[in-house]
Amino acid sequence: MEHLGGELTEVHGIPTPIRFARPRRTHSAVRQGVGVTRHPWGILVVDGDDRHEFLDNTLTCRVPTEEGIVRYGFLLDPDGIIETDLYVVETGDRYLCLTAPGTAASLASELGARTFIQDVTVENVTDAHVILGVHGPAIETKLAGVMPDGTPPADELTMSRGVVREEGVTLVRLDAPTGEPGIIVICRQDDASAVFDALVSLGAMAVPFGLEIWYALCLEAGTPLFETELAGRNPNECGQLTAGVSLDKGCFVGQEVVARIANLTAPRDRLVGLLSEESIEDGSTVQTSLGRDGLVTRSAYSQQLNTTVAMAVAPASIEHGDSVSVDGIEAQIHQLPFFETSIRSGRVPTYD
After folding, report:
1. Which of 51, 62, 99, 130 lies in disulfide reach of 192, CB 3.0 to 4.6 Å?
2. CA–CA separation, 5 vs 108, rounded Å?
3. Amino acid 25: pLDDT
4. CA-CA distance, 140 to 71, in Å (whole number)?
């Protein structure tokens, strides 16, 4: 990635590009075509005859039983607080759990401690693999040029296998967190450089992009991320009951708290968008007229809107269109997503 002009950092020990040259042009190129990045997510392998029952009784989502199906969900603590979000991939003989940055080791330890006498093994294989992302409306054309003999997954939250430059890969179609079609490509660590270069250079033109643009794309699409919005909060507050929680599937850790809030009360806060003509800093205070303040979780400059956009945790009674002060800067509450993307993210917050 550095040979393509990428500026790298380590995210929980995983080398990850922050940015490449001409970030504004790159942002537009991903929205209009296709871009390639590396995701600093973790990977667990869950195996054993009791793996489905075990995961289904632990995670908030309905764990898939059919090969090639993927689900998005959470691991909660007993108080209903999100410890990680994750994709659960049914590969046919085991599950792959794709976890939020920095959570794989703790999740493996926690799941391993829960197995008791069940036939379940949990292995953290993050260090042996790399997760690359291909995002944008032209991903089918791009992958057709990279994998002429393969068939990438066509439907959201499905999985397939393929070959890139003679290297075996696993492909997972996401729920459009950027507001554009997105497929992740999982390969072995030793193959990552060749696979990344192929995804950029073979077939249709693709641009490499980094974390800054990933955060901005997901923000524009109204997608909460673990690092900024989800960690330490409950899924009710984050508007994620539709996206990642199945309250009718039976028990899971933290279900009682989440169900009680869903059925008997309401979250005091919710996620909202902000628009401002001036720059807004992450972590800024959102001052409202409701007697309680909010907090900016993430902000970025939007190429499409030519203004600053942000996501914030704010009092649930706040209305779209309300004016607020963000550390003295005027801003307006805006409904998520900020504009219509080619595909609506499956994780846009929803509240009854």
Report:
1. 130
2. 35
3. 87
4. 22
For range 291-299, the mean pLDDT: 93
Per DSSP, the residues of 219-231 read HHTT---IIIIIT
Q: For 90-142, how does the pLDDT look when each residue is reduced to its tens digit (9 = 90+)?
A: 999 999 999 999 999 999 999 999 888 899 999 999 999 999 999 999 999 99
Which pLDDT does position 255 carry in this prediction?
95
CA distance 69 to 150: 18
For the chain, which residues make up each domain, given as ranges? 1-267, 268-339
CB 58 within 8 A of CB 202: no
Can you name the residues that pair with 333 across neighbouring β-strands?
A: 274
Q: In which element (H, E) is residue 185 found?
A: strand 182-188
Amino acid letter at 222? Answer: G
Task: Give just the sign of the alpha carbon dihedral 193, 10, 181, 206.
Answer: negative
Question: Starting from the edge strand earliest in sequence, which strands make up the sheet with 158-164, in order?
Answer: 158-164, 167-173, 182-188, 129-135, 35-39, 207-208
Domain 268-339 top-level CATH class: mainly beta
Stretch among 102-106, 209-213, 247-251 having the lowest mean pLDDT: 247-251
Q: Are 90 and 159 spatial neighbours (Cβ–Cβ below 8 Å)?
A: yes
CA atoms within 13 A on the CB side of 280: 33
CA distance 304 to 223: 17
> Does residue 220 register a pLDDT over 60?
yes
Judged against a pLDDT cut of 80, whether residue 2 lies above it is answered with no
